[in-house]
UniProtKB/TrEMBL annotation:
Region annotated LID, chain positions: 134-144
Cellular component annotations (GO), alphabetically ordered: cytoplasm; nucleus
Class of enzymatic activity (EC top level): transferase
Family of the protein in this entry: Belongs to the adenylate kinase family. AK6 subfamily.
Protein name according to UniProt: Adenylate kinase isoenzyme 6 homolog
Record field: catalytic activity: ATP + H2O = ADP + phosphate + H(+); AMP + ATP = 2 ADP
Record has Disulfide bond as a keyword: no
Described purpose of this protein according to its UniProt entry: Broad-specificity nucleoside monophosphate (NMP) kinase that catalyzes the reversible transfer of the terminal phosphate group between nucleoside triphosphates and monophosphates. Has also ATPase activity. Involved in the late cytoplasmic maturation steps of the 40S ribosomal particles, specifically 18S rRNA maturation. While NMP activity is not required for ribosome maturation, ATPase activity is. Associates transiently with small ribosomal subunit protein uS11. ATP hydrolysis breaks the interaction with uS11.
Organism (species): Lithohypha guttulata
GO biological process, one term: rRNA processing
Entry EC no(s): 2.7.4.3
Amino acid sequence: MSRKYPNVIITGTPGVGKTTTAQELIEISKSSDSPSSSIPLKHLSVNKIAKEENFYESYDEELQTHVVDEDKLLDHIENLIANGAGEGGWIIDWHVCDIFPERWIDLVVVLRCEDTKTFYERLTSDRKAEGGEKRGYTGRKLQENIDAEIFGVIAEEAKEAWPNEGAVVELISEEAEQIEENAERIWEWCKRWVKDNPRDVDGEEG
């Protein structure tokens, strides 16, 4: 492993607060006033990249969603991650996690909203979510996302893709206070990772 800083995926079904948590984490990292705990984290919103680069291969009318060209998307993200000699520090934010190679990622955080009423309200709200996405889910799209959250589909996919103990963490994300607490927990984990994986100025193991 040659990274100086950890790469983290923040994942979960739409509506669990992935982007808000990632942005809160970035703000925490920027406000750290201790040089010893300074980690240059970078937010990578996969939804934003797919939209800006038009990495779509089709549109599913029934689910009212674009189908992402995963090969083009992964090639693009790999180029981003490899920049700066692959020093790491990427916070990847997307509702899919198991398409990423295991070697890219040091921690997978699966956000959960177990309160079905809260989750339903988030998905059906016409208010724009973080990142500019307007949900207002209905029909099959709404039901599939609710079912996925109830049955913990993304968490199970993550555990299959990253079977090592401690590689996948599930955190409840239902209230604003929990989002802040989750961001703090991920930040503390990042600091521990750097401490446990020391590198000198050339990126070699210390």
